[in-house]
Amino acid sequence: MSALHSIKTQLKSFLTEIGELSLFTGRYFREAFKRPFEFKELLRQCYNMGNRSLLLVVITGFIIGLVLTLQTRPTLMEFGAVSWMPSMVSISIVREIGPIITALVCAGRIGSGIGAELGSMRVTEQIDAMEVSGTNPFKYLVVTRVLAVTLMLPLLVIIGDAIAIFGSFLVENIKGNVSFMLYFSQVFDALEFGDVIPATIKSFFFGLAIGIVGCFKGFYCEKGTEGVGKAANSAVVFTSLLLFIIDFIAVFVTDIFYDL
Amino acid sequence: MIEHNNISNREIVLELKNLHKHFGKNNVLNGFNMQLFKGENLVIMGKSGSGKSVMIKCLVGLLEADSGTITVMHNDITKLDQEALDILRADIGFLFQGSALYDSMTVRENLEFPLRRHTKKFGEHIDTETLVVEALENVGLASAIDLMPSELSGGMKRRVALARTLILQPKIILYDEPTSGLDPITAKEIIILMQDIQKKYGTSSLIITHDVDCARAISDRMILLIDGIDYAVGTYTELSVSKDPKIKAFFKH
Ligand SMILES: Nc1ncnc2c1ncn2[C@@H]1O[C@H](COP(=O)(O)OP(=O)(O)O)[C@@H](O)[C@H]1O
Ligand SMILES: [Mg+2]
């Protein structure tokens, strides 16, 4: 009985959160197109975010490529289908594993960073200070950060994909003596625009989700130092959940387009 | 209530009438009244959590009051659009409780920040560098110009915040607990600085505090905020001899 009740209240607060988040997203789109544009701050944020997450994306991408290839190799060998490795690996990485892993890594790195940064700015009244000095804090802090992650994430996904496929090539090169030229010509034969375009569009939405949730949690952070920790933590948890929901919707939509 | 008559014919620069504000079930302000006269130092004292910061944030439109009128230099701030509100805010300096310096910016960038928007106030040929250096010299910290806030002590942060408040040459300054969190000697220095600024620029100041020493040193007039209303109004001397136990509690050491 009480377990059911707790699920009910949790679901209710989740739905309230979704509602508030939608309003916040609406405000983002309204303010994003209003002057003045904060170009300098946008560039600074793009640089910061890329800089902070590049190494992480490279390392995880490389390991995913290695592991995926090592794990599937025995099965493919059993069926005498090792030559399918390049196309199998590149399609699964480009379509699904690359975007979602990169987005999850960035939710942990960028999303929590934004949540903590804006949260501490809220708690220490820096956001209020900005507002009374004539700068719209929503434009200066939120719009620039959300736009920066939305632009940077597809870029990071492409880098992550490339590194993962390279990792896979290394295994094939060492274990199966496959040359660089052969491996990558098969990769490019296998990949179609129908794989790359939906994945890139999906990555934009992943970036948007990371930015919006991080900013939302930080901007409405509760008072006190524990509020900042909560903002950072719940930014990651909520974003991760949202990423899988977006992924699910994206697969659905892409599937409809394939059928056409 | 004690009334103070000899300034009643002076110009009023800030006025709150019957201000109400609540958060959920928490009724913070229940009809608060206040008048700030031109050139005076008005101290508002109240216990921690009594709604002093809420009151001062309603004054500049950072929080929306439930009801009541807020008049700032003859403008009803609830009726202003964003543009007009921003212009009005350039004439009001706000020193935040914890200094509120921007962590990610140097002292110089902190001081330049208000100038981004309010360049009009100084005409076409504004020399940012001169304004920044001058503001820092006013608080005796010209050498800290390229430091980050994290490299400053609490007292230095408060001074830089004060410089940032002064850079737009406001006519009114709102101080939210200017001496809280500082040791007595540093607090004294900040009070002297506030007095110097008042002499130099003739600003009107609203000072929120629960520090009796600060109130005695700086106040022309005081208001005690108790139970969400302006419970008592008068000079320090008048209030400090009151028999009312609620008022006496503030002046006991
Ligand atoms: N944004 C807010 N949301 C909810 N409650 C608030 C908010 N700001 C202040 N309060 C509540 O209002 C009361 C007065 O707070 P405040 O004005 O900060 O006190 P102080 O007099 O110490 O400055 C407190 O009980 C505080 O919890
Ligand atoms: Mg306060």
Regarding quaternary structure, what we see is: heterodimer
Number of helices, counting only DSSP H or I runs of 4 residues or more of chain A: 8
The proportion of residues forming helix of chain A, as a percent range, comes to over 70%
The count of strands of chain A amounts to 0
- Please give the largest β-sheet of chain A: none
CATH class of the domain at 8-91 and 173-178 and 204-253 in chain B: Alpha Beta
- Unreliable runs of chain B, pLDDT <50, ≥5 residues? none
What characteristic shape of chain B results from the CA principal axes?
A: globular
CATH topology of the domain at 8-91 and 173-178 and 204-253 in chain B: Rossmann fold
Mean pLDDT of chain A: 93
How far apart are the termini of chain A?
A: 47 Å
Structural class determined from secondary elements of chain B:
alpha/beta
Beta-strand residue percentage of chain A = under 5%
Give helix % range of chain B: 25-40%
Number of domains of chain A: 1
* Spatial sequence of strands, sheet with the most strands of chain B: 6-7-8-3-9-10
User: What's the mean pLDDT score of chain B?
Assistant: 90
Total E-strand runs of chain B: 10
What does this entry look like structurally?
The complex is a heterodimer of chains A (260) and B (253). In chain A, 88% of the residues lie in helices and 0% in strands. Chain A has eight helices and no strands. In chain A, helix 2 (39-78) packs parallel to helix 5 (137-176), helix 3 (85-123) runs antiparallel to helix 5 and helix 7 runs antiparallel to helix 8 (225-259). With 260 residues, chain A is an all-alpha fold. Chain A has one domain (38-259). The termini of chain A are far apart. The radius of gyration of chain B is 18 Å and the shape is globular. Chain B is of the alpha/beta class and 253 residues long. In chain B, helix 3 crosses helix 4 (128-138) and helix 3 packs parallel to helix 5. Chain B has a domain at 8-91 and 173-178 and 204-253: 3-Layer(aba) Sandwich (Rossmann fold). In chain B, a hairpin with a 2-residue loop joins strand 1 (12-23) and strand 2 (26-37). The model of chain B has no long low-confidence stretch (mean pLDDT 90). Chain B is built from nine helices and ten strands. Helices cover 35% and strands 25% of the residues of chain B. At the A-B interface, helix 3 and helix 4 of A face helix 3 of B. The complex binds adenosine-5'-diphosphate (ADP) and magnesium ion (MG). Magnesium ion (MG) is lined by residues 52-53, 97, 176-177 of chain B. Magnesium ion is lined by residues 52-53, 97, 176-177 of chain B.
